[in-house]
Amino acid sequence: MTLDASSPAAAAASIARDLRQVVEHRGHATLALAGGRTPGPVYDHLAAEDVPWSEVTAVMGDERDVDEGHERSNLGMARRHLGHLPMAWLDLRHEAPERVDVAVLGWGTDGHTASWFPDLHDEDLQHLFSSTHVRERVAPPSQPEARWTLTPEAILAAEHVHLIGSGAEKATVLDTVRIEADARTHPVHLVLTGASALDVWWWP
Ligand code: 6PG
User: pTM value?
Assistant: First the structure.
């Protein structure tokens, strides 16, 4: 599979379209946001889109267990790009949304998405994959701190899922995931196969 080159602006326009649609049908939308380094430009374009932000609640799809002011805080990063908008925020460290309507996720070169890391111990990964909760706490050995993460249950129930990634390595990983087809070694596979409406946005 070759990923067509897209852009942060195209991803943002599509996310905005989904948010408008959900708010129109439900009166409110819960938006799960990716952390890490990739989303910044997407969020800057998203902030300029025409969205009824006062009807949107944002929550991180996963959060490192650090305070918002810490340099590794995903919530801190997202609010630097979107915090000026009139939407409500939930802090995943302290509370879980009832549902997720639109989810924006990144993926790692190890095949993780959210904090579904393949180096989690077997029983922890199985607990995560089978959880009926919206939020779980995990401690991936590869990560410097424990994390809170939305579960596959919560993410795969979303009306729209957007995967965003950039760079050649991320494209190669997605090719591998499509071939290897094993959620245990590449958890992002769950999203590629289980999301009801999925858009993948990749740019060089
Ligand atoms: C996190 C993220 C994580 C991220 C991927 C990609 O807490 O790190 O939520 O799931 O989306 O690790 O991160 P980059 O965008 O920095 O490559």
Answer: 0.97
